[in-house]
Write a structure and sequence with these properties.
The complex is a heterodimer of chains A (276) and B (294). Chain A is α/β, with parallel strands linked by helices. Helices cover 35% and strands 22% of the residues of chain A. Chain B folds into 2 domains: 30-64; 75-281, MetI-like fold (Orthogonal Bundle). Classes of the chains: A alpha/beta (276), B mainly alpha (294).
Chain lengths: 276, 294
C-alpha cells in the first residue's frame, strides 16, 4: 500500500487545515447549478481524497456530476459549499498545476499536432528548447512519431486524443484530470490507449483522476475506483483494486481479482450504468 | 512505387527518425503553387461572364432594343477606349474611396466586436446603436454628410464605412463567441492570460467568420462610395453616371456601371484571396485527402 494511506485513518478533527498528504481533496462539497428554469443539485456531500501518485477512477451514471467533480478539483468551478484542495492548497481559481484531457480532443485546427502540444508551453512561457525536448519525448512516448506535422483533421480520433494527452502532460503536471478521454474511441483503440496510459502513469508518477463509463477501463487502470450515485451525485462507495502494479492487459482481464472488482462495481451501480 | 521497393527490404531496421510505414512526407505548397491552384478553381465565373457579354451583344446586334436605350458592348467599350484617361481618373477616385472605406470599416468593425465580446455592458449599449446605424437609409443621410464634410472624399468614405462595417461587426462577434468552451477552460488551466487566450485561441478561431463578413463588406463599400458620389461630387464613377444620365449618353453610363461592378468584384476577389492565404486550415478551404496512385 502507498505510504500516504495512513493519512486516511486520521480523524477529521485532528487533520491539519492544509494537508500536504493529499493531491486532491474534496471536503463535503456540494454543487448547485442555477439555470433560468430550475435549480439542479449536481453534487451533494462529496468527500474524496486522492494520494499523490495515486490513480483514481470515477464511475457513475450519466449526469451524476463526474465532470463537475473534476472541474471543482481544478478550480474551473467553485463549490456551492464545502472546500476543494489541490496539493494541500484551497482551490479558489482555475489552477495551472493540473493537466486536463476532455472527451473531445479540443485541438486548434489551425495548428499541427506538435504546435497543439506546444500551446501548453506557449501559454506558460516555458523555455522554448526545454518545451521542444519535452514535446519530442511525449510524442515518442505516445506513438505520435511521424504525425507531428499533421493537422487535427488529418488525424484519427485515437491520434487526436494522444495529442491532447501530450498537451496535458507537457508541463509535467502533478495532477492529471481526465474526463472520459477515450469515450469516443472504438473498443480496440481504447484498449490500446488504456495500456499506454497505464505505462505513462507509471513512468511519470503523476496523480491521475479519471472519469470513465467503462468499468473494465476503471478496474484495469486504477488503484481505487470511486462509484457515484445518480443525481444528486454522491459517493456510493470506493473500492481498492488489488491487482499487481504490472498489469499486462490480457492477463489482467483473466485475473479473479479483475472479475471480483468489476462484479462489485456493477452490482453497486446497478442498472444505472447498464442503461447508459 | 517508391513505397514498394522500400517494403521489400524488410530485413533492415528502419532508422529511428524515419516516419512509420506507409507515410511519405510531402512538402507544403509554395505561394506560386497556391496561386496556380486558385486560378484553376476560379476560371468558371469568367466563362459565364463571357457568355453574358455575348448575349448582350446578340440582343443589341439583332436590334431588339433601341441603341440609345441599350448600347452594344462595342459602343460601351468604345466609350471607354476613346477617353481612357477620363475613366481611369474617375475609377481611381471611386476605387480609392471604396478601399479606404472598406479598410476603415474592417478596422472599426473588428474593434467594436472585440470590445463588445469582452464586455456585455458595452454590447448591450452599443448593439442597438449599431443596428440603428445599419437600418437608416444611407442615401437619405448622405446629403447631411455633404453639408458637414463638403464635396471632397469625406462624405463618400463615411457612407462607404457606414454601409460596410455592419457585416464585419456581426460576423466577428459571432466568430469570437463560437470558440469551444472546453478550449477556453483548457486555456484557463494553462494559466493563460486574457491576451494570450485572445490571440492564440479566440482571434484565430473567429477568422473564418470574419472573412465571410469582409466579403459582404467589400461589395457594400463600393455601393457606399457611389451613393456618396451621387449626392454631391465632381469626381468618381457615381459622378460619371450622373453626368452621362443628364446627357442621355448611355454608352458612358453603361461603361460606368461596368467598371463599378468590376471594382466590387475585384475587391471581393482580393478578400477571398487573402482568406485563402490566411486560412488554409479551414474546413471550407481544404480538400479532403484524395487517393493517389502508388
Ligand atoms: N454549467 C451548468 N449549468 C447548469 N447545469 C449544469 C452545468 N453543468 C452541469 N450541469 C448539470 O449538473 C449535472 C451533472 O453534470 P456533469 O458533471 O456534467 O455530469 P457527468 O459528467 O457525470 O455526466 C447534470 O444534471 C447537468 O445537467
Ligand atoms: Mg461528463
Amino acid at each position: 500500500m502507498p505510504p500516504g494511506s495512513t493519512a486516511e485513518r486520521v480523524a477529521p478533527m485532528e487533520r491539519p487545515l492544509t494537508d500536504p498528504g493529499h493531491a486532491v481533496e474534496l471536503d463535503e462539497v456540494a454543487v448547485r447549478f442555477r439555470t433560468k428554469r430550475k435549480d439542479v443539485t449536481a453534487l451533494q456531500d462529496v468527500t474524496l481524497r486522492v494520494r499523490p501518485g495515486e490513480f483514481v477512477a470515477i464511475v457513475g451514471p450519466s449526469g451524476c456530476g463526474k465532470s463537475t467533480l473534476l472541474k471543482l478539483a481544478s478550480g474551473l468551478l467553485a463549490p456551492s459549499s464545502g472546500t476543494a484542495r489541490l496539493l494541500g492548497e484551497e482551490v479558489t481559481a482555475p489552477r495551472p498545476d493540473v493537466g486536463y484531457v476532455f472527451q473531445k480532443a479540443a485541438l486548434l485546427e489551425w495548428r499541427s499536432a506538435r504546435k497543439n502540444i506546444l500551446l501548453q508551453a506557449e501559454m506558460r512561457r516555458m523555455p522554448a528548447r526545454q518545451a521542444r525536448e519535452r514535446a519530442d519525448e511525449l510524442i515518442a512516448m505516445t506513438g505520435l512519431t511521424g504525425f507531428e506535422d499533421a493537422y487535427p483533421h488529418e488525424l484519427s480520433g485515437g491520434m487526436q486524443q494522444r495529442v491532447a494527452l501530450c498537451r496535458a502532460l507537457l508541463h509535467r503536471p502533478p495532477v492529471l484530470l481526465m474526463d472520459e478521454p477515450f469515450g469516443a474511441l472504438d473498443a480496440l483503440t481504447r484498449e490500446q490507449m488504456n495500456v499506454e496510459l497505464r505505462r505513462i502513469w507509471q513512468e511519470t508518477g503523476t496523480t491521475v483522476l479519471l472519469v470513465t463509463h467503462s468499468i473494465a477501463e476503471a478496474v484495469y487502470l486504477a488503484d481505487r475506483v470511486v462509484m457515484m450515485t445518480a443525481r444528486p451525485g454522491t459517493v456510493a462507495g470506493v473500492i481498492e483494486i488489488g491487482l499487481p502494479a504490472d498489469r499486462d492487459y490480457g492477463t489482467t482481464m483473466a485475473e479473479p481479482e479483475f472479475a471480483r472488482a468489476t462484479r462489485h462495481i456493477r452490482d453497486h451501480l446497478g442498472a444505472a450504468v447498464a442503461a447508459d | 512505387m517508391v513505397t514498394h521497393s522500400q517494403s521489400e527490404r524488410a530485413g533492415s531496421a528502419p532508422s529511428p527518425a524515419s516516419p512509420p510505414d506507409g507515410v511519405v512526407e510531402r512538402s507544403r505548397p509554395g505561394l506560386g503553387e497556391r496561386l496556380a491552384g486558385f486560378a484553376e478553381r476560379s476560371w468558371r465565373p469568367f466563362v459565364l461572364l463571357a457568355a453574358i457579354v455575348v448575349a448582350w451583344w446578340a440582343v443589341t446586334a439583332a436590334e431588339l432594343v433601341e441603341p440609345y436605350l441599350v448600347p452594344s458592348p462595342g459602343d460601351t467599350f468604345d466609350a471607354i477606349a476613346s477617353r481612357p484617361e477620363y475613366f481611369w481618373e474617375h475609377t481611381w477616385t471611386t476605387g480609392y474611396e471604396t478601399l479606404l472605406g472598406f479598410v476603415i470599416a474592417a478596422a472599426i468593425g473588428v474593434f467594436a466586436a472585440v470590445v463588445m465580446v469582452n464586455s456585455p455592458t458595452v454590447e448591450k449599449t452599443l448593439y442597438p446603436l449599431l443596428l440603428f446605424a445599419q437600418v437608416i437609409p444611407k442615401i437619405a443621410i448622405a446629403p447631411l454628410f455633404v453639408v458637414w464634410l463638403g464635396f471632397g472624399l469625406g462624405p463618400k468614405i463615411v457612407v462607404a464605412v457606414l454601409m460596410a462595417f455592419f457585416p464585419v461587426v456581426i460576423s466577428m462577434v459571432t466568430g469570437l463567441k463560437s470558440v469551444d468552451p472546453e478550449m477556453l477552460q483548457l486555456s484557463a488551466t494553462m494559466g493563460a492570460k486574457r491576451g494570450q487566450t485572445f490571440w492564440k485561441i479566440r482571434f484565430p478561431a473567429s477568422l473564418p467568420h470574419l472573412f465571410s463578413g469582409l466579403k459582404v463588406a467589400a461589395t457594400m463599400a463600393v455601393t457606399g462610395a457611389v451613393v456618396g458620389e451621387f449626392v454631391g461630387a465632381d469626381a468618381g464613377l457615381g459622378f460619371v453616371i450622373l453626368q452621362a444620365n443628364g446627357n442621355l449618353d448611355t454608352p458612358v453610363l453603361f461603361a460606368g456601371l461596368l467598371i463599378m461592378s468590376l471594382l466590387g468584384v475585384l475587391l471581393f476577389v482580393l478578400v477571398e484571396w487573402l482568406e485563402y492565404l490566411v486560412l488554409p486550415w479551414h474546413a471550407s478551404r481544404r480538400g479532403e485527402g484524395t487517393t493517389t496512385n502508388l
